[in-house]
Each structure stands twice: as structure tokens, then as C-alpha cells.
């Protein structure tokens, strides 16, 4: 992988200019590394004791932080990832150090076959799925719609939204009453993004998917919600943007900085627990203070 890092920005809340050439990027190459350890020093209190959680894109970024937080709360984990072996194995090691079980599932969530095989592997290991977190995504900036190729358009939609259909179709027969589906959308679903047109379109689709699936599954007792992060320091950022854009990433939100994965993960924990028992079809917005139309 080709990685470049240059001098840090003058604003200490922002990030050094850097770039990676491979999507969805590697956390191990980022400077500084994203913060993923659960916020707060006290150990967990077993909020997810006995629960089995499947996270796509679980090797790094938000997925990594969610895995560590859920492990601290007693969950057993299954982490899907594309090809980032170092990140995936590091996350598994950290989950196991927290005292939780963890299996890795390598493959492309844009493939219906992989989604079926991943769910089958989780059932074979743990016998059930209590929480499904659809988190995997990719993005390819283009300044002009004319520059979005057919191949890019299909890849973005296949990875970001088709995968959610495939994973839910595979997992649903194994989801009992009280199970949770949590989808990762984005602030771009609400305010748009001129240079991430296809990505933002998929994130808008995820909001509609979440609300519609929640209505469809409410009688079965399966809760469906989503999280719409704002700018968050994950491998997708240096893998998507030129180095100088990375150095200004997050400066536009009221808090004037990007979020860290450990600041986003608690939203997923809330939606996975009994605290969200009266919520379905809803979206949480950890976005640095940006007010958006929900």
C-alpha cells in the first residue's frame, strides 16, 4: 500500500495530512490511530451478557470500537471484513483480551453468497444471532456526476446498501423476538454531499431501508434502528481523500474536529440494549453538533 504523511496542521484538533491508496483503508497505517478503547475506565456491567453480535466492517474504525465496547459488556463477537488482515486480527486479539469470544469472517458483503456463509458460520459457532450491525461501507469521491462510472456506481451501492438486504435476508430466520438490527448511515443522508454523490445516495437509502424494515418487522419483535455519524476518523478517510483534505477533515462541524470511533460506539450499545426497547425505525446522530433535518 502507498501511504503518505506530511506535516501536521496548525489546529491541534485536526489531523496530519495523509493518504492511503487502497479502499477501505488500514487503521494500522493512520497517524494518529483512531481511538477505539471504550470511553471511561470502569469495566462493563454485562449489558450484553450472553448476546451474539455480528458486525460487518468490524475490523477497524467504528466497527472496531463497537466490537471492543460490546466485548466489555459480555457479548460474543463475529467480525466481517474485506481484506484488512492486520486490522482484523488486532481487533480479534483485543476483543479476546477483554474476555470475549470472537470469530473473523473474511469476504465481500456485496456478495449474497458471502453473507449467507457468514451467517451460517456464526450459527455454527454460537447457535444464534442477537444483534446484527450492518456497518461496512466504501466511498469514492468525484466532483462531477459525469465522472462516476457504471462500475463505481454499482460497487458503491452493492457494498453500502445491497449488502444490508443480503445480510438481513440471511440472518432474519435466526433472529428471535427482541433481536436488534443496527445500520450505519451518515450525516450525508440528510445534508447531501456534492463530492460523494453515490455514497450519500446509498446512505439516504439506508435511512429509508431502516424505517421500512422496522415497520415490516415490528410484529415479530425485531427492532431496527440506525446511527448517522458525522465526520469520524476512520481508515475510510485517508483512503478516500487527498492528504490536504484529510488535514481539514471535520473542521466544518460546530465542534471543529472529527469524531473518534470511541465517541460513536455508545450509540450502538444503547440501541442494542433494553434501554432502546421502545425504539424502532429511528436514527441517532453523533455528528459534532451539526443540526440536521431528521
Automatic annotation (TrEMBL):
Residues 1-32 are annotated as: Disordered. Residues 51-236 form the Ketoreductase domain. Residues 1-11 have a biased composition (Polar residues). Keywords: Oxidoreductase. PROSITE patterns: ADH_SHORT. It comes from the Bacteria. Belongs to the short-chain dehydrogenases/reductases (SDR) family. This is SDR family oxidoreductase.
Amino acid at each position: 500500500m502507498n501511504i503518505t504523511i506530511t506535516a501536521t496542521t496548525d489546529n491541534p484538533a485536526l489531523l496530519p495530512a495523509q493518504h492511503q491508496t487502497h479502499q477501505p483503508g488500514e487503521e494500522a497505517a493512520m497517524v494518529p490511530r483512531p481511538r477505539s478503547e471504550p470511553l471511561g475506565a470502569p469495566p462493563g456491567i454485562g449489558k450484553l451478557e450472553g448476546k451474539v453480535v455480528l458486525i460487518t466492517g468490524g475490523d477497524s474504525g467504528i466497527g472496531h470500537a463497537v466490537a471492543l465496547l460490546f466485548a466489555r459488556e459480555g457479548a460474543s463477537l463475529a467480525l466481517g471484513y474485506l481484506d484488512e488482515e492486520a486490522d482484523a486480527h488486532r481487533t480479534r486479539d483485543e476483543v479476546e483480551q477483554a474476555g470475549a469470544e470472537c470469530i473473523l469472517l473474511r469476504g465481500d458483503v456485496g456478495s449474497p453468497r458471502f453473507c449467507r456463509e457468514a451467517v451460517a458460520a456464526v450459527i455454527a459457532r454460537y447457535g444464534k444471532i442477537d444483534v446484527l450491525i450492518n456497518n461496512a461501507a466504501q466511498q469514492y469521491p468525484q466532483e462531477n456526476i459525469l465522472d462516476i462510472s457504471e462500475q463505481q456506481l454499482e460497487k458503491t451501492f452493492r457494498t453500502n446498501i445491497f449488502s444490508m438486504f443480503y445480510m438481513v435476508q440471511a440472518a432474519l430466520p435466526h433472529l428471535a423476538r427482541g433481536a436488534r438490527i443496527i445500520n450505519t448511515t451518515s450525516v450525508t443522508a440528510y445534508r447531501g454531499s456534492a463530492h460523494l454523490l453515490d455514497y450519500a445516495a446509498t446512505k439516504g437509502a439506508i435511512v429509508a431501508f431502516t424505517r421500512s424494515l422496522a415497520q415490516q418487522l415490528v410484529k415479530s419483535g425485531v427492532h431496527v434502528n440506525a446511527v448517522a455519524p458525522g465526520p469520524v476518523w476512520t481508515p475510510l478517510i485517508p483512503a478516500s481523500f487527498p492528504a490536504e483534505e484529510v488535514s481539514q477533515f471535520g473542521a466544518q462541524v460546530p465542534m471543529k474536529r472529527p469524531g473518534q470511533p470511541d465517541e460513536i460506539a455508545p450509540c450502538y450499545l444503547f440501541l442494542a440494549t433494553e434501554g432502546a426497547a421502545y425504539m424502532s425505525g429511528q436514527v441517532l446522530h453523533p455528528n459534532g453538533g451539526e443540526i440536521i433535518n431528521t
